[in-house]
Amino acid sequence: MILVKTEAGQQVLKDRSVPLTPRQRSAFIQFDGKRSIDDVLGSGLGIGRDEIEQMIALDLLAPLPGQPVAAVAAAPAPAVSSGRSRQQRYKDAYPIATQLTGSLGLMGFRLNLQVEGTTSYEDLLALAPKIRAAVGAEKAAALDKALND
């Protein structure tokens, strides 16, 4: 998949409003619409997929327009195993999602606003990969359980 800087990403590149490590910034600059994720990962910068996922979750990077959206890393597949309704799942998962994104501080502000804008289970389920990318799989486990258990 080929990624490009979003409008917000272009602004961050100029004003450094989102703190990026030197490695992240170097990799971020390489996403010019010509290089694939694998090219950047293999460039020797020492950046991992999780850091790229975080930049995607922060809306700094996006897939090249016209390119199918594919996950950078595999996300757990939703499984409907309990008798809870979608409404109950949303009700259980929403506070977890707001807590996770709120704990990101300024870096997670936009993501937190997206969570607060959700109105249904489907909305929150669609946003879960971005949250997982931003906070890490371990911290997102409670959200995954609330959405999928």
SSE map:
Layout: E1 2-5, H1 7-15, H2 22-30, E2 32-36, H3 37-41, H4 49-57, E3 61-63, H5 86-102, H6 109-116, H7 121-135, H8 137-148
Antiparallel strand pairs: 1-2, 1-3
Describe the structure using short key phrases.
single chain; 149 residues; mainly alpha; 3-stranded antiparallel beta sheet; 8 helices; 56% helix
Strand order of the largest sheet: 2-1-3
Task: Determine Rg (CA atoms, Å).
Answer: 16 Å
Shape: elongated
Mean pLDDT over the full residue set? 82
The class by helix and strand makeup works out as mainly alpha
Beta-strand portion reads 5-15%
Oligomeric state of the chains in view:
single chain
Q: What's the number of helices? A: 8
Order of helices and strands: EHHEHHEHHHH
Q: Level of helix content?
A: 55-70%
Short description, anyone?
The protein is mainly alpha-helical. It contains eight helices and three strands; from the N terminus they run βααβααβαααα.
Descriptive overview:
This protein is mainly alpha-helical. Helix content is 56%, strand content 8%. It is built from 8 helices and 3 strands, in the order E-H-H-E-H-H-E-H-H-H-H. The protein has a 3-stranded antiparallel beta sheet with strand order 2-1-3. Helix 4 crosses helix 7, helix 5 packs antiparallel against helix 6 and helix 5 runs antiparallel to helix 8. The longest helix is centred in the middle third of the chain and has 17 residues. The two termini are 31 Å apart.
